[in-house]
Amino acid sequence: MEGFDQKCALEMLEAMKADGVNVNMKVMQKLILNAFEAELDYMRSVGILTAKGEFKDGEYDDDDAFDFITEELCKRMPDCDAYVITDYLEYYFDYHDQVLTENGILEWL
User: Fold this and answer.
1) CA 33, chain centre distance (Å)
2) Partner of 47 at 20 to 30 A CA spacing, among 18, 30, 37, 69?
3) pLDDT digits (tens, 9 = 90+) for 8-61
4) In this structure, is the dihedral angle defined by the CA atoms of residues 54, 76, 98 and 18, taken in order, positive or negative?
5) What is the pTM of this model?
6) CB 54 within 8 A of CB 35
7) How far apart are CA 82 and CA 76, in angstroms?
8) Which tens digits make up the pLDDT trace of 58-106?
9) Cα 22–chain centre separation
10) Could you tell me the end-to-end alpha-carbon distance of the chain, in angstroms, rounded to an integer?
């Protein structure tokens, strides 16, 4: 992870600490980094992101993305309980959206 992804992960973790979120921060950091990759895989699978990394019009379905990413994280983090993954993934989405919005990358219509 380089550049913005690394900055985003650090901002997410710092925001969680500041908000007093009660998670294992080492597990959360691992989940964030794996979730970034899994989310990109989801976007490729639904045609939002091309193999070359270019964005195209496509539909990002929050529920489908959550299911896809959860399944991927369970594969990538087999030592982590699936219930922990789903709980932490909720924080991932909340704080990822927050950081993207604060950095002017995500705008809710």
Assistant:
1) 7
2) 30
3) 888 899 999 999 999 999 999 999 999 999 999 999 999 988 888 888 888 889
4) negative
5) 0.83
6) no
7) 11
8) 888 989 999 999 999 999 999 999 999 999 999 999 898 888 777 665 4
9) 18
10) 29
Which residue matches tokens 């710092």?
A: 14
Q: 3-class secondary structure for 5-62?
A: HHHHHHHHHHHHHHHCCCCCHHHHHHHHHHHHHHHHHHHHHCCCECCCCCECCCCCCH
92: which 2 tokens?
């991932």
Tokens of residue 55, six digits:
């964005």
What φ, ψ does residue 24 adopt, rounded to 5°? Answer: -75, 110
Alpha-carbon distance of 66 to 27, in angstroms, equals 18
